[in-house]
DNA sequence: ACTAAATGCAAGTATGATGATGGCATTAAC
DNA sequence: GTTAATGCCATCATCATACTTGCATTTAGT
């Protein structure tokens, strides 16, 4: 099964930030609707995001979810690492019997390759902030509106 | 569940190349032993590798598996793409209801991020050939032997 | 011919992380 | 007190991956 935690968390954070900019109160129910899932599911992903100081929430009526710090200071790497725990992008086979030159050293070799791959992706994600991402989303929205009105 | 096809196929190919260099006949059973699985499982991964002209095999007694072309002309990217089909490294959520600015454009936005990540990893894998990898494995083997004898 | 040793392949089982829901106690505004 | 929100736990669902069993086929050697 493919891991959807990162894209889901990303949409949640971007949704919160956009709501904030638009002066709209954001709840887990609204986020859930925009994802097509239940509010409970959203709250589950909100747990690590809150723990890492990315978002924060208030209880009770008129409660909801807000950004916990500036979107300029949150990168996609922060979000990725926050919700995927220690899951590696590439994983070596566990429990390889050390019987030959290949099997005895493949683990160490593969670890090097996997680390390099992961570092490349994480660095790329670290170069994109939530603020940048929202800007890009809004740009895409403008183009979408442009395309839609061109049809008429 | 984590995808082990790439590390498994990698060990298979490196094992075949090492056997070839050492002048030893290689069979799916030997590869299976070095992986701790059945020969049938190895053969299953051999199917795409054969299809892509990376390895080739001969039937019957004294049959076995060989490299189909020079290890200098096979990159880790070739192996990765061969065995992982069209699986993406990062995947967007499917079926997002387009209800707001975020949900309507997140798909396109995420696709850009995912493509960039995948391109980075594939380019890195393309820079490593099977020949290079075997050299590195043998270097690790020397270090391993060095460490082992230093203990005595 | 016969046997041994190999591949090719189809069918099926297992598993476990991920995906997702429901329910309920708690909190806070009005 | 009612309403509307979060926090969190227990649970179910599913599905891609992991792997085995089993057997037909092919080929080499005697």
UniProtKB/TrEMBL annotation, chains A, B:
Single GO MF descriptor: DNA-binding transcription factor activity
GO cellular component, one term: cytosol
Signal peptide boundaries: none
Pfam family, one: Rrf2
InterPro entries: Tscrpt_reg_Rrf2 (IPR000944), WH-like_DNA-bd_sf (IPR036388), WH_DNA-bd_sf (IPR036390)
PROSITE patterns according to UniProt: HTH_RRF2_2 (PS51197)
Entry protein name: Transcriptional regulator
């Amino acid at each position: 099964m493919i891991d959807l935690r990162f894209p889901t968390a990303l949409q949640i954070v971007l949704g919160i930030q956009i709501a904030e900019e638009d002066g709209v109160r954001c709840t887990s129910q609204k986020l859930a609707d925009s994802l097509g899932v239940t509010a409970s599911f959203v709250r589950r992903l909100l747990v690590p995001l809150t723990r890492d100081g990315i978002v924060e929430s208030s209880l009770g009526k008129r409660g909801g979810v807000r950004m916990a710090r500036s979107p300029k200071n949150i990168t996609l790497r922060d979000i990725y690492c926050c919700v995927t725990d220690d899951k590696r992008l590439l994983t070596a086979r566990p429990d390889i019997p050390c019987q030959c030159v290949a099997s005895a050293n493949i683990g160490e070799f593969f670890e090097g390759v996997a680390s390099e791959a992961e570092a490349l992706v994480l660095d790329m994600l670290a170069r994109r902030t939530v603020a940048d991402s929202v800007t890009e989303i809004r740009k895409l929205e403008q183009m979408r509106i442009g395309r839609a009105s061109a049809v008429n």
